[in-house]
UniProtKB/TrEMBL annotation:
This is DUF2029 domain-containing protein. It comes from Acetobacter oeni. The keyword Acetylation does not apply. Keywords: Cell membrane, Membrane, Transferase, Transmembrane, Transmembrane helix. InterPro entries: GT87. It is found in: Cell membrane.
């Protein structure tokens, strides 16, 4: 037992073995593996069927086909899964990846509209290149050291989104820049957050945190940009696009609930329950319970920080409440895929800055290590074991940030937990002694 306790203390809580040199080496190894996998996925299918037979960057074909439909005057057809798939096949007649439906609101359709003005390959490269620059530059503002570029580019969330041709880097960049700008330019930070109406499920926790911290200028910026995008999409496409989007809600819900998008690709509490063969009702109950609990937690932490004016007690210029909001995202929506979690790099970077500037708290190093590497194998792990690791690892990251924001309260809670465990072990030992005495 003593050896187990020592192992927990040295290897897990203190993680003395995880030095800066080893951490960089692990980043290089995982980055090399991730980008090698990306190149293999990019080249292997087209080596068999021809370079132009299959769309590169998978999901991007849905965005490009939607743009093509809009530019040809078929806005309503974007929200018809059959007609949208026909548009995809028109670009790649031999496509064998299945139907990539367009489940996004017209605000995102407005963003996608120019894409089909360019050939598919050029458009995809510009889309991913622009989003990557915005994402990396935001992280470089938090981690300005030269050596930090390797962990940023090797982060599995970055690699996965790039491989899938998705919008996770764009939404993560908006979240990251709002975290960077909240202190100096709160209205501009709000403009960044408001732009997330292109993927509104990522904004679920924002009202709770912004209201609890009384960030009125940020809220105003969000209303301006979010409302502006909604109005602009209505002017551009009319009511037919919005009515088509809402009509498609049932189809999207069935696709999600029945696992037509494989559950092992998704990373929410809902899909963790469905992977374990729980029914839809149980999955919704657990998802809702978790979401409400997380709302109370982040709301209380944000209110407490605002009450004590604790913004100046943290290292760096980032807004800790936005780091908290991003860390809470895996619990706030049932519809969450692994490429959406590229945004977790920002709360991880914030936690790293706190540990590097002051001292590492017990468990922080190993939490950052696991949060960094697990996305690379999350799909395979879920497919092989029917267990989704995201709720467990994301909860550890969220609680680590909560401990930084409320150290005294968390210390009392940890002490109480330790006391309860100690009392329980004493009770068990006394019970064993009494039972053995009765037998004797």
């Amino acid at each position: 037992m003593h050896a187990v306790r020592r192992f927990m203390k040295v290897a897990i809580l203190r993680a003395d073995w995880l030095t800066a040199g080893r951490a960089r080496a692990y980043c290089e190894i995982f980055g090399l593996f991730g980008w090698a996998t990306f190149l293999l996925m990019l080249l292997l299918p087209w080596w068999k069927t021809g370079w132009n037979a299959q769309p590169r960057f998978g999901d991007f074909i849905s965005f490009w086909a939607a743009s093509d439909q809009v530019l040809n005057g078929h806005v309503v057809a974007v929200y018809n899964t059959t007609k949208h798939h026909i548009a995809e096949l028109a670009a790649f007649p031999k496509m064998s990846f299945g139907n990539f439906a367009f489940f996004y609101p017209p605000t995102f359709l407005l963003t996608c509209t120019p894409l089909a003005l360019l050939p598919y390959g050029v458009s995809a490269s510009l889309w991913l290149g622009t989003a990557s620059v915005a994402y990396v530059s935001a992280l470089r503002r938090i981690l300005p050291w030269r050596w930090a570029l390797i962990p940023i580019l090797a982060f599995p969330g970055f690699v996965i989104d790039f491989t899938n041709g998705q919008n996770g880097l764009l939404t993560a960049a908006l979240l990251g820049w709002s975290m960077m700008l909240m202190r100096q330019r709160p209205f501009v930070a709000g403009l960044c957050l408001g732009c997330l109406v292109i993927k509104p499920q990522l904004l679920v926790a924002a009202p709770v945190i912004l209201l609890c911290t009384r960030q009125w200028r940020t809220i105003a910026g969000g209303i301006v940009s979010g409302g502006g995008l909604i109005v602009a999409s209505w002017i551009a496409f009319g009511t037919v696009a919005w009515s088509g989007f809402f009509r498609m809600g049932h189809s999207a819900r069935v696709t999600f609930e029945m696992g037509y998008v494989s559950f092992w690709k998704m990373q929410s509490v809902f899909t963790a329950v469905r992977l374990l063969h729980g029914n839809v009702s149980l999955a919704y109950v657990l998802q809702t319970t978790t979401t409400v609990f997380v709302f109370f937690l982040v709301g209380w932490l944000s209110w407490r920080m605002n009450l004590k004016n604790g913004n100046g007690s943290f290292a760096g210029d980032c807004a800790p409440e936005i780091a908290l909001m991003i860390a809470a995202l895996p619990f706030c929506t049932p519809f969450l895929l692994d490429y959406d979690l590229a945004c977790l790099a920002f709360p991880m970077a914030w936690l790293f800055i706190q540990g590097r500037s002051t001292e590492w708290l017990p468990g922080e190093k190993i939490i950052l290590f696991l949060a960094y590497i697990y996305l690379l194998g999350a799909r395979l792990f879920g497919m092989a074991t029917l267990v989704c690791p995201t709720p467990f690892i994301a909860s550890a990251l969220l609680l680590a940030i909560a401990r930084r924001m409320a150290p005294a309260e968390c210390a009392h809670a940890i002490s109480g937990f330790k006391y309860a465990i100690r009392e329980r072990s004493i009770f068990v030992r006394k019970r064993q002694v009494s039972v053995s005495g009765e037998k004797a």
